């Protein structure tokens, strides 16, 4: 995990914004790391395309420069693409590459050894587009069920390994050239030097995968977060955590804080799990209704899941009892024990289990490290932070440079809040050092 602090830095930068369609909260925390390298953006209405919303998380590595620049400018590169009006998916893919090229042509950024993941959710005309490069992740809760909107890009994935090999690289210790644990990222220009192939074909590429969905009134919320969250909890576990918090009437920015504390390692000896920087955005779909309507929907979703779980357990118990009775009958009628093993009642993936990404297959094992310790198996997770009923404000944040205007968020916990003056919704104003497209 690299160098760690002797004690985690748990102060948080949290923000909140809302309109008739969304209630959005975000928060970020340095944790055990020596420096904070994440950035994030949430914009309810893009300046270049009013009515279109943009949410993104950038998880920097090797430094914060690339993540900070992406947080300020990526949405601009996307909306300025000529195909944006007719083909949003292509505009997202090319916008990622345009931003990467602009940073490569900037002397100050080109020499940086840093890079960043990028997971973006853009909602336009009731169509949701999720573009992802790296292992940050976005999930949705739709009618109480999980919908995974992005898939992690790891060097061990077969498709990623093939591209790395074709570009002249190799995978060692589950890393590109034994160095980078991601196979797609912004920046990391030292791994993008093959001049004979396209940017999308480099061993590490900024070219994103894009998922597309139709947003209906059955959509409850989104969670967009860096791998500091997903390394600890599965997609399904995060969904259930957020759903339960909303059902209690907790506001999104407080949910983000509580989720980070849930995932924070109790010490720095957890092999990196729970010790990373953490950034979370929770987007609640209001559909023009009060927040109380979503609270009720989440309560109903929890009740339905509990009823399904109870039904499955009852069915499993009955099947097991039948299996035992059958084996008992066989043992009474045969001198030799039954050769068949125990029944498989209730096996298979549960209806609401998470599949997420390829990397999530090992998440349950990773998460269990946080649940027990070697000196007796006692629960080692930090207790969930209680919700605060403090005053709620509006607006948005990015980690180092704010990407949208906000009012301060003040709640009862003694955590750091951001204060920005009211201004336009565009956080990345033209006075920042943006690189012009060629």
UniProtKB/TrEMBL annotation:
Entries under InterPro entries matching the protein: PP2C, PP2C_BS, PPM-type-like_dom_sf, PPM-type_phosphatase-like_dom
Sequence ranges of Polar residues compositional bias: 385-415
Swiss-Prot/TrEMBL cofactor(s): Mn(2+); Mg(2+)
Boundaries of every PPM-type phosphatase domain copy: 23-285
PROSITE patterns for this protein: PPM_1 (PS01032), PPM_2 (PS51746)
A GO MF label: metal ion binding
SUPFAM superfamilies in UniProt: PP2C-like (SSF81606)
Keywords associated with the record: Hydrolase, Manganese, Metal-binding, Protein phosphatase
Top-level division of the source organism's lineage: Eukaryota
EC number, as in UniProt: 3.1.3.16
Amino acid composition bias (Basic residues), ranges on this chain: 306-317
Region (Disordered): 306-438
Compositional bias segments (type: Acidic residues): 427-438
One protein family per Pfam: PP2C
Family: Belongs to the PP2C family.
Listed name of the protein: protein-serine/threonine phosphatase
Species of origin: Anopheles culicifacies
Lineage start: Eukaryota, Metazoa, Ecdysozoa, Arthropoda, Hexapoda
């Amino acid at each position: 995990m690299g160098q760690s602090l002797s004690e985690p830095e748990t102060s948080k930068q949290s923000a909140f914004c809302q309109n008739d369609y969304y209630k959005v909260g975000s928060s970020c925390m340095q944790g055990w790391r020596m420096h904070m390298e994440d950035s994030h953006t949430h914009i309810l209405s893009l300046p270049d395309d009013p009515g279109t919303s943009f949410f993104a998380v950038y998880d920097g590595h090797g430094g914060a420069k690339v993540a900070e620049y992406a947080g300020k400018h990526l949405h601009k590169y996307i909306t300025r693409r000529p195909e944006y009006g007719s083909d949003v998916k292509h505009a997202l893919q090319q916008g990622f590459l345009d931003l990467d090229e602009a940073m490569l042509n900037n002397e100050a950024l080109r020499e940086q050894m840093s890079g960043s993941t990028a997971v973006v959710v853009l909602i336009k005309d009731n169509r949701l587009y999720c573009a992802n490069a790296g292992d940050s992740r976005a999930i949705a809760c739709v009618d109480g069920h999980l919908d995974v909107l992005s898939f992690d890009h790891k060097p061990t994935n077969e498709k990623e390994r093939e591209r790395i090999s074709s570009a002249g690289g190799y995978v060692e210790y589950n890393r590109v050239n034994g160095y980078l644990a991601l196979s797609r990222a912004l920046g990391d220009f030292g791994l993008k030097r093959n001049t004979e192939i396209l940017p999308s074909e480099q061993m590490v590429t900024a070219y994103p995968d894009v998922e597309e969905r139709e947003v209906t009134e059955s959509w409850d919320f989104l969670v967009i977060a860096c791998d500091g969250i997903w390394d600890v909890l599965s997609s399904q576990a995060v969904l259930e955590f957020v759903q339960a918090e909303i059902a209690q009437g907790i506001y999104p920015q407080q949910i983000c804080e509580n989720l980070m504390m849930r995932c924070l390692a109790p010490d720095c000896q957890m092999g990196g799990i729970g010790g990373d920087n953490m950034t979370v955005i929770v987007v609640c779909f209001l559909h023009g209704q009060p927040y109380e309507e979503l609270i009720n929907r989440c309560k109903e979703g929890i009740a339905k899941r509990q009823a399904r779980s109870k039904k499955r357990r009852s069915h499993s118990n009955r099947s097991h009892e039948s299996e035992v009775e059958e084996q008992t009958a066989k043992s009474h009628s045969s001198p030799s024990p039954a050769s068949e093993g125990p029944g498989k009642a209730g096996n298979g993936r549960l209806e609401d289990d998470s599949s997420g990404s390829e990397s999530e297959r090992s998440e349950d094992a990773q998460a269990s490290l946080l649940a027990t310790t070697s000196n007796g198996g006692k629960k080692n997770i930090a207790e969930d932070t209680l919700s605060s009923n403090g005053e709620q404000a509006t607006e948005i944040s990015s980690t180092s440079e704010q990407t949208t205007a906000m009012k301060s968020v003040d709640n009862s916990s003694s955590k750091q809040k951001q204060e920005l003056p009211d201004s336009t919704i565009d956080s990345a104003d033209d006075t920042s050092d943006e690189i012009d497209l060629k």
